[in-house]
Design goal:
The chain is an alpha/beta fold. The protein is built from nine helices and eight strands. It has helices at 24-29, 44-57, 70-77, 100-104, 130-134, 139-148, 184-194, 207-210, 212-227; strands spanning 6-10, 34-36, 62-67, 83-89, 116-119, 122-125, 171-176, 197-201. The chain starts with 5 loop residues before the first strand and ends with a helix. Residues 7-217 form the AB hydrolase-1 domain.
């Protein structure tokens, strides 16, 4: 449908593009062109390049939405001239002089980090930690999340590339009040620093899976500002 904003999604750690599957069909039915970046968490530069390719492949204007570490990616890739709105979902949003780890280290660690291991140069989420990641999903969905999640290189959060899109682009932020993966206080501070239009939901780290209708409403709000 003419005049509809496109939507591009960026996933985070221990996830892949399918983590937005409860949002994509509805957005498509409402006339939006949608792409979910499939990046391998091999490097920040490579992941940003994947998101940028997705932006290049859809018509503008674009709502760029990122979950968790995907917030770092939209912060970097969102400087693209056809991105008109940023939506952060329980996400990081480092400033120009911060890495993802430096932003995260400003707040106490969350329980999920008691359930990780490094093997083959990657940071793996143990099965014992899935409840801290997505504990408000049914058990079957939790197992699916664990089985389909991409696994990051160990130094991913220490890597840096330029770009701070939220400095110049309007932003929306969904705080997950019950998050045990990204500290909710970090989320609130990030949203305040961005000057984002801020929402809060009683969710685990994955509100797009546990509260998809809520997240859809925020994305619609962002999209409408580009379609008027």
């Amino acid at each position: 449908m003419a005049g509809k904003a496109s939507v591009v999604f960026a996933h985070g750690l221990w996830a892949d593009g399918s983590c937005f599957n409860k949002l994509i069909p509805t957005l498509q039915a409402e006339g939006h062109e949608v792409l979910s970046s499939q990046h391998g968490l091999d490097s920040l530069e490579g992941d940003v390049a994947c998101v940028t390719r997705a932006i290049n492949h859809v018509p503008g204007p674009v709502v760029l939405a990122g979950h968790s570490y995907g917030g770092t990616l939209i912060t970097k890739a969102g400087i693209h001239d056809r991105v008109g709105a940023l939506v952060y979902i329980a996400a990081l949003g480092p400033d120009e002089d911060e890495t993802s780890q430096q932003e995260q280290a400003k707040f106490p660690p969350t329980p999920v980090f008691d359930h990780i291991e490094i093997a083959d140069g990657r940071i793996w989420l143990r099965e014992s930690g899935i409840g801290d990641f997505c504990g408000d999903l049914p058990a079957e969905e939790q197992k699916l999340v664990l089985a389909t999640g991409a696994v990051p290189v160990a130094d991913l959060f220490d890597q840096q590339v330029p770009g701070t899109a939220w400095r110049t682009k309007p932003s929306w932020y969904i705080v997950a009040n019950n998050d045990r993966t990204v500290n909710p206080d970090l989320e609130r501070a990030a949203a305040e620093r961005m000057g984002a239009k801020t929402y809060a939901v009683d969710s685990s780290h994955v509100p797009m899976l546990s509260h998809p209708d809520y997240v859809l409403d925020v994305i619609r709000d962002a999209a409408m500002t580009l379609e008027s």
